[in-house]
Amino acid sequence: GSVVASYPYDDSPTHKPTGVYSKSADDEVFKYLAKAYASHHPIMRTGKPNCPGEEGETFQDGITNGAQWYDVEGGMQDYNYVWANCFEITLELSCCKYPPTSEL
């Protein structure tokens, strides 16, 4: 987990684990949508989620292209875009995947 708005594509033609910007035909729209959310989130907008073990990880404007961050083959975000013409971004809202009940 992290605190970032991710947009398509999550998969890349090379399937490298990370670092490949996988641009969709609607890349500018997706970046706009991701920035619209991230700019209003107090942590996300800083681009520095400061997650334990990943303190150096940063995201410009609090957003990332999915495949550039890490490649996900067969993800729902890409499937919905390609097959259902659904514009979807993924919001990573916490560094912790399993927070204690008391923190929810």
Automatic annotation (TrEMBL):
Active site annotation, chain numbering: 92
Listed GO MF terms: metallocarboxypeptidase activity; zinc ion binding
Recorded superkingdom: Eukaryota
Domain Peptidase M14 as annotated: residue spans: 1-104
Region (Disordered): 1-20
A GO cellular-component term linked to this record: extracellular space
Pfam families: Peptidase_M14
Family: Belongs to the peptidase M14 family.
Any GO BP: peptide metabolic process
SUPFAM superfamilies: Zn-dependent exopeptidases
Organism (species): Phaethon lepturus (White-tailed tropicbird)
Keywords recorded for this protein, A-Z: Carboxypeptidase, Hydrolase, Protease
Name of the protein in its database record: Carboxypeptidase D
